[in-house]
Amino acid sequence: MKTKIEAIANTAVIIVAVVVGSVFLKDRFSAPPPESVTVKARDKLPNLDGWDWAAHDQTLVLFLRKGCHFCEDSVPFYQRLIAQQQQGSTIVAVFPDTADVVKEVVQSEGLRIHALAGVPLERLKIDATPTLLLVDRNGTVLNAWIGMLSPRQELEVMKATTGPTAAGLELPDPLQRNDDGISTQHR
């Protein structure tokens, strides 16, 4: 009798486990995918406290976060961008961190840019750092670059933000070919 009760109890536990498991799996596989909330070109950004889009022809906004290793690895590129900045455009860094943290990061990295602190990135539809947005004087996003940039994307940002000074920039040819297409690289 005892074994019959144990068998019934074990069967009941298995049935309950199968029912509960199927409910969880059904919800997991039949739920619609989450809607993307990432900002993109032609989106309008809300005003940022301490920043006036209309005061500049265009603004390159760097969305950064302390402790983001991709942000830290991109600092040399940001320094080149700052050095090539053209008249009428500007670069601003936006952090979700406190003002003290932002000041420490900007000074330690030698970034000579205006920085805004304590901005909730989710409010601006930013879910990854670094994110770079080129914004016009109306607050409209002209272009967006998300994540650590490849050399080609860095060149694209430079050309978009530095105007004539970067118009002749090209990616270096890793094979160092001459005009005839023959490699000049020595082994």
Keywords:
5 strands, 187 residues, alpha/beta, 2 domains, Glutaredoxin, disordered C terminus, 5 helices, 14% strand
Structure description:
This protein is of the alpha/beta class. The protein has two domains: 1-31; 53-166, Glutaredoxin, CATH 3.40.30.10. The chain is built from five helices and five strands. The protein has helices at 2-30, 69-73, 75-83, 99-109, 151-162, and strands spanning 58-63, 89-94, 114-116, 131-136, 141-146. Strands 3-2-1-4-5 form a five-stranded mixed β-sheet.
What fold name stands as the CATH topology of the largest domain?
Glutaredoxin
What's the arrangement of strands in the largest beta sheet? 3-2-1-4-5
The number of helices is 5
List the domain count as a whole number: 2
CATH architecture of the largest domain: 3-Layer(aba) Sandwich
Helix content: 25-40%
Unreliable residue runs: 31-35, 171-177, 180-187
- The arrangement of helices and strands along the chain is HEHHEHEEEH
Structural class: alpha/beta
Kindly provide the name of the CATH class of the largest domain: Alpha Beta
Taken as a percent bin, the fraction of beta residues is 5-15%
From the spread of the alpha carbons, the general shape counts as: elongated
Mean pLDDT: 79
